[in-house]
Write a structure and sequence with these properties.
Layout (H helix, E strand, L loop, with lengths): L14 H6 L1 H17 L6 H21 L9 H28 L1 H6 L6 H27 L6 H32 L3 H15 L12 H9 L1 H14 L5 H25 L3 H4 L1
Helix pairs in contact: 2-6, 3-4, 3-6, 4-6, 4-7, 4-8, 4-10, 7-10, 7-11, 10-11
Length: 272
């Protein structure tokens, strides 16, 4: 059976082609998961321990030490509501941004839709999220925190979708740039650390009073995703207008990422 390789539009995902290579997409995702945990003595247990340890450390520093407000709920519940979303973004962005360089040997040998590589990296981050979510539910039960589970059922998926769109847009953009300018592999970890403290992961966005920074938070898709996820557990009113603005910015980042990736993918085999 013969396939014709067609040039994709610069703003197109190439969905039909991705579906044609869906088995390769599954292979890359499962390979990334196995490589991540195979050589670790605790294996998949690290997917559980990582968010749990982060929660304990940040609880000691921000709750016990700095007395940061947790909007009236136990700080471990508050912190994990942000961390489970943040980890999708941070792990997905780091893996997808470096994915083209890491897979350079495969790119040079065979043809397949290059978007499969950063997409599989983000799906690997969602795999870790499933473990973190189980830990979060356990923490909620441990603290006997009253939770509107019906609200969780629609807030959490929307929050995840907003995070994934944002991560994919930035991830594909950085993946394309990282192939050509290797300096980005040093900049990206620093950028992720910086964004951890810029976004309301470990503190409430209510403490922000500066008008300029409040406006930045309103259009920041990741901040909106965290606040939406958290509102499901705190019971705070949902700012749907801000969520809508977050989606507008996320889709813009998505389109920029796709355009940059499509514009440079013809040279990946030569540059990688």
């Amino acid at each position: 059976m013969e396939y014709t390789i067609e040039r994709q539009h610069k703003f197109s995902l190439g969905f039909k082609e991705l579906m044609r290579y869906r088995e390769l997409f599954y292979f890359f995702t499962w390979r990334d998961i196995k490589v991540k945990y195979k050589q670790a003595a605790l294996g998949f247990l690290w997917a559980v321990l990582q968010p749990l340890l982060m929660m304990l450390i940040f609880t000691l520093i921000f709750s016990k030490g700095l007395k940061v407000s947790s909007e009236g709920i136990p700080y471990p519940v508050f912190a994990l509501s942000g961390l489970i979303i943040w980890n999708i973004f941070s792990n997905g962005l780091l893996n997808s941004a470096n994915s083209m360089v890491v897979n350079a040997s495969i790119i040079k040998k065979i043809y397949f839709p290059r978007l499969i590589i950063p997409m599989s990296s983000i799906l690997t981050a969602l795999f870790d999220f499933c473990f973190a979510l189980l830990i979060y539910i356990g923490v909620i039960i441990f603290y006997h925190h009253n939770t509107d589970w019906l609200r969780v059922l629609y807030c959490l998926p929307i929050s995840i979708l907003l995070t994934v769109i944002t991560t994919f847009g930035l991830g594909t953009f950085l993946a394309a740039l990282n192939v050509k300018y290797r300096d980005f592999q040093y900049v990206i970890p620093f950028m992720i650390q910086f964004l951890l403290f810029v976004n309301p992961v470990l503190y409430s966005s209510k403490i922000i009073t500066n008008s300029w920074f409040v406006w930045v938070m309103k259009i920041n898709p990741l901040a909106n995703a965290i606040n939406l996820s958290r509102s499901a557990f705190t019971g705070n009113p949902i700012q749907w207008g801000d969520v809508g603005l977050g989606f507008v910015v996320a889709i813009a980042l998505f389109m920029i990422g796709i355009y940059t990736f499509r514009k440079t993918e013809a040279y990946f085999a030569d540059l990688a």
